[in-house]
């Protein structure tokens, strides 16, 4: 409960910070709404009583008061509705949403984007800022609604304590309506199968594929009859339920109206007996007539606000998750700008959250400075996981990764990532202009046109740019009215992006050319090989390539063969072929595949 209160307070503070005037006005009108009906009823009572007993001048003044109060009762609800909508939307979009996105994007690891139960929450949260803010105002509306009920009912109680019973009767139409709606909902569930059936049968008749066969086999009439029967069955259940709901609603209102009439009769008796005034009668009519509406408003706002829980829970989870991530000790050591020893993986085991089998286990490997390492293995053997551990997207469950002997957990994250250039098999497709899509690969060099040009060249992507209508200024992604690239063109763009950094010490290529044809792949690899060599002599950079293509792999300084999360073979191409193990077998298979293809040609 305390968490909910704290959350409400923090959202309210945000609202005051983001839209102070609008928030203050909305709160003021909410409070005003608590008293308008009561104010109007009191004014009306005064008007009637002063008209009967007092001087005409006072009655005139009071009439003015009644007019103002009545006008207020007419406008406050609509005004409040619009104000809450505006302030919730504005603060949601301009204040809360950016904060949510920064929190989601600012988490260093990847779990919240990969683990389904986390991703579900993140997905719910993405469009939920407005709803969260509306929920926050829903709390205000519920509290004010209860306040309004208390004020109006107390006023009724001042006429006669018996009147307090009227509140209970005000809930009769609400309860009856709820029963009726529940019956409708049940009928919808019960008739859903018939409804789906008739929809399927209808589709059968109108779709060309099934339509052909229906005509051929002469089954059209039977299907049409079956559809009509299913439709009839579904509709009749729903109609019955709606009639029942109507009857419930009628009964609820009948009970309330009976109690309302009884209350009026009671006040009339009081007036007749000289124990009350006509003004009190008017007050009772005014308040009792709005009582059901006020009770309904409390129930509706409370139910709607409770519905916002589905956004509140993921929001609180995100807050906890971010806090937990921040608590992890942040490294402070700078990333070396050149490597002397290289990178090492020491006894690393990693199990994805939500799974029980480690994706990599007890992995030991060294990536000596200035060398190229290729990782091979069948699908799901742990290659990408190992690469992502090198990029520090996950923390190993056991063991450590070191750079020049220093545990990477101790290195400042921003510097560490700045020292890496990487392309992944599931590369990003950024819907921005082409130049931006490449330049974001190295933010400090964002405006450096030469660097962007060389990166495009390095990825052999100049041809892609030449084919774009506005060259590097072309907007990408058809969702934003831009040009949609082919898979291979997107991949080249990702490759160009990863070529932006001019002095990375770790170069990662995880299936970087999977979407390219063999010829383009060769061109890209030759360029990458020369970049690797340049970086190796410049700052001792290590290159790690995951690939299924042995033409690429065979030239690496060392090859790691992974199987079931472990490194099962390691060595140069020649050594591994000589070993005659798993690598040799895979190489043989692929070579035979190429041979067969060539023969067919
Ligand atoms: N985000 C994830 N959540 C849970 N399990 C995962 C996740 N990513 C990978 N795995 C599992 O971890 C194991 C290793 O996957 P990984 O992607 O590292 O293999 P891979 O060798 O790179 O495969 P591929 O050649 O298909 O890319 C697999 O069993 C895979 O199902």
From TrEMBL:
Subcellular location: Cell membrane
Main subcellular localisation: membrane
Keywords, sorted A to Z: ATP-binding, Membrane, Nucleotide-binding, Transmembrane, Transmembrane helix
GO molecular function, one term: ABC-type transporter activity
Transmembrane segments: 21-43, 55-75, 135-156, 162-180, 247-268
InterPro entries the UniProt entry points to: AAA+_ATPase, ABC1_TM_dom, ABC1_TM_sf, ABC_transporter-like_ATP-bd, P-loop_NTPase, Type_1_exporter
Annotated ABC transmembrane type-1 domain residues: 212-307
Endoplasmic reticulum listed as a keyword: no
Any one GO cellular component localisation term in the record: plasma membrane
Membrane-related topology note: Multi-pass membrane protein
Name under which the protein is recorded: ABC transporter ATP-binding protein
Protein species of origin: Xylanimonas oleitrophica
Residues in ABC transporter domain copies: 343-589
Zinc among keywords: no
Entry-linked Gene3D superfamilies: ABC transporter type 1, transmembrane domain, P-loop containing nucleotide triphosphate hydrolases
UniProt cross-references to SUPFAM superfamilies, sorted A to Z: ABC transporter transmembrane region (SSF90123), P-loop containing nucleoside triphosphate hydrolases (SSF52540)
